[in-house]
Fold this sequence. Notes:
alpha+beta, isomerase, 22 strands, 9-stranded antiparallel beta sheet, 32% strand, binds ligand ISC, disordered N terminus, isochorismate synthase, single chain
Amino acid sequence: MLSEISALQSTNTTLESIDLSQQAFFVSGTRCFLTQRPHHRFTTQIKDHDVLVSQLKRELAKCSSNDAIAFGVLPFCKTQQAQFIVTEQAHQYDKETFKQWITAKGTLKQDTMPSLERISHRQSQHHYESAIREAKKLFANEQLEKIVLGKQVDLYFEAPLSPETILTNLLTQSPSGFHFSFPTEQNSTLMGVSPELLLRKHGQAVLSNPLAGSAKRSNDKAMEFKLKQALMASKKDRYEHAVVLVEMSQVLQPWCQKLTIPSSPSLLSTATMWHLSTEVEGQLADANTHVLALANRLHPTPALCGKPTADAYPWIHSLEGESRDFFSGIVGWCDKHGNGEWVVVIRSGEISANHARLFAGAGIVAASDPTAEWLETEAKLSTMLNALESNQAYHQLSQIKMRATA
Ligand SMILES: C=C(O[C@H]1C=CC=C(C(=O)O)[C@@H]1O)C(=O)O
């Protein structure tokens, strides 16, 4: 009891000064991390795995503490730069305790979310569905087997957004998953709750939990039962999922002395979606393998990019017509021993002043229906729209826009 009270008191003290425009935050299971000063930042290329890992080791070696941690975000595209924050020591909290305190702090400050005033789709529904039809030609010509197509939407609010309020909503509305917040060098805050673990590494043990194949959840119990069954039985979704696993096992196999991949997927739920999910477990041949040496080789998997990966990249760029930057990249942390945890930047947004940019994508295969895939991306947006308390306003503004352009 005494230790619980002192944990709450120390949480209170540090939370008084929580500032997500400066501090990185990451939830891992029942624990969460918050960076503390002193910290230093650096950027690095990600194209060459060895250069990335040696720079990380060099930067961590600048810290005297054995508990030093590097938090970072890697972009989707290998030609862009990763950003890191290195801290001598991170505050660590029990997730539930942290949630209680950040909620209480919001209530005390009477924090309210500003209203959504305007939206702008960087890819309209027409654009998105046309891109899918183009992709289907590539499958027919056997140029690609799968591609993940994303869209971005800009939301403008009447007043500046508070990342702390958004994080509070993410923690309460979406209790499971990996909540994260990262202050970028562009003075924005990248935040969200990712359901997808790309790689966790501790000693020799590695774990990955790729997701691919999705259905929107329902409030109706009988309906939920039906849609779970339909998702498990869907040939299109099972194929989308299988493509990811084949690719990932090819990357992981040479590094592992043991690799276990279940023969069929299971179901994983978020607050808004069901996904086909597989837990891939491995034992590394060399416990000194750095988590990012492997995570950066896996990234981007065909759950975010496509198959073949190198061919899908340029098609994504030309079909989406926008750079994804950190969206569908990876975010996480690693320590001086090369252990750490990296998740995929999805169900996320980039917040700056009164603007939020959101991203959602969907895996496209030959059997994909363009409108169904658009609706899937709309459903995936709702994690962040709910956290911004703007789901209803977003759909109203979308309707008005659609009528105006009809
Ligand atoms: C690209 C996204 O989801 C990926 C992860 C899970 C399921 C997916 C799917 O079913 O298409 C996507 O591969 C996203 O949420 O923006």
